[in-house]
Design goal:
single chain, about 350 residues, alpha+beta, Nucleotidyltransferase, domain 5, Actin, Chain A, domain 4, 3 domains, six-stranded mixed β-sheet, globular, binds adenosine-5'-triphosphate, binds magnesium ion, Actin
Length: about 350
């Protein structure tokens, strides 16, 4: 069986990304939602009319509606492989610690509905570590629905050490929309919320010293909206991303991202901790916020022993690193024996996924 025509899917809760392994030009991104037209049938699209209701399969990074998920997989597979009738293998990358039931339903769909030749399910964190050429490190992923810190040792994640919170890109955008109402600016409809998201990405930044900066904050950034109206953005620019470090700002009694990292490393073996502190891999769209790295280093340094200097690897593409990591995995000769082939699936059924795929 050839790995070259394998389809890789990064099942992100903001965007599902996919490609054929040896064809970077086949790379596709699809918002992880479907619209429900008035007729009642589902359709995926990049252009959403306000009259449609939007359906999301994810809650806090985990799939909660398999029917909607299936519609998104239908669409992304059409976009990537077109009408190609040949069988192909699939690597599905998902967030850590997925329920067994989800994994079983996924393998069942891929073999029985999409007729794949073989299947493998793996965590995005592991693939992103491979993509940095490492097998041991802590992957800190802050994307859309969830922020997770995942220590990985020799290529395998350690489930009891994973720490997560619900503050990520979607929470930041919601909070930004909320605090912009203080200035009399309202982002209500879906398209307006998309504009708010873009403003967040473009103008918000993580303050290096929040308590000091917020006290004397007096800049006012004018920004013209697509309808020609001009809004003034003030300290919302730093208050919004501060949520990553202080979830309590929205009443969430959860650790900030820096504390998640410390907690997950402290749950790892004592002799591994120093190495983990020096191999922190930052991934996910939200970690692209301006100023994020410097603030994170500052916070981690405050919380680690003096003899340890935390080091972060922020080098590669943050959006497609799962796909790139999967391409590397496919190139490893020993991976060939890790595929769940159809014959194995036919013999053992969907539960085989929980025996084979736990990385
Ligand atoms: N430059 C940027 N600055 C701030 N946020 C950004 C930037 N680019 C993307 N984002 C945010 O990153 C999020 C999407 O990240 P990503 O593509 O990693 O998510 P995902 O993989 O689909 O979701 P998840 O892994 O959480 O299920 C969105 O909330 C988006 O607004
Ligand atoms: Mg992701």
């Amino acid at each position: 069986m050839s790995n070259e025509n394998a389809v890789i899917i990064d099942n992100g809760s903001y965007e599902c990304k996919a490609q054929i392994a040896n064809k970077d030009f086949s790379r596709q991104q699809l918002r992880s939602m479907v619209k429900e037209p008035k007729k009642g049938s589902y359709e995926c699209t990049a252009f959403i009319q306000e009259t449609f209701s939007l359906k999301y399969p994810f809650e806090n990074g985990f799939v909660v509606d398999m029917d909607i998920m299936e519609k998104i997989w239908d669409q992304i597979l059409i976009n990537v492989v077109g009408s190609n009738q040949d069988q192909y293998p699939v690597i599905l990358s998902v967030a850590q610690a997925q329920p067994k039931k989800f994994k079983e339903k996924a393998i069942q769909l891929f073999f029985e509905s999409y007729d794949v030749s073989s299947f493998y399910l793996i965590s995005g964190a592991t693939l992103q570590l491979y993509n940095r050429g490492k097998f041991t490190g802590v992957v800190v992923d802050s994307g859309y629905g969830i922020t997770q810190s995942t220590p990985i040792f020799d290529g395998f994640s350690l489930p009891h050490t994973i720490c997560k919170n619900n503050v990520s890109g979607s929470a930041l955008t919601e909070y930004f929309i909320r605090i912009m109402t203080e200035l009399g600016v309202y982002f209500n409809s879906y398209s307006e919320q998309n504009i708010a998201n873009q403003i967040k990405e473009q103008f918000c930044y993580v303050s290096e010293n929040y308590e000091v900066e917020i006290e004397k904050f007096n800049h006012c950034l004018p920004h013209e909206l697509p309808d020609g109206n001009c809004i003034q953005i003030r300290d919302q620019r730093i208050r919004c991303p501060e949520l990553l470090f202080q979830p309590l700002l929205i009443g969430l009694n959860q650790p900030g991202i820096h504390e998640l990292i410390i907690q997950s490393i402290k749950k790892s073996d004592l002799d591994l901790r120093k190495y983990l502190f020096q191999n922190i891999i930052l991934v996910g769209g939200t970690t692209q916020l301006l100023g994020f790295n410097q603030r994170l280093i500052n916070e981690l340094t405050k919380l680690t022993p003096l003899s340890i200097k935390p080091k972060m690897d922020d080098s590669s593409d943050k959006i497609f690193s799962v796909l790139d990591g999967a391409k590397l995995l496919l190139g490893i000769s020993s991976f060939q024996s890790m595929w769940i082939e159809r014959s194995l699936y036919d013999e053992y059924g969907p539960s085989i996924v929980n025996r084979y795929c736990w990385g």
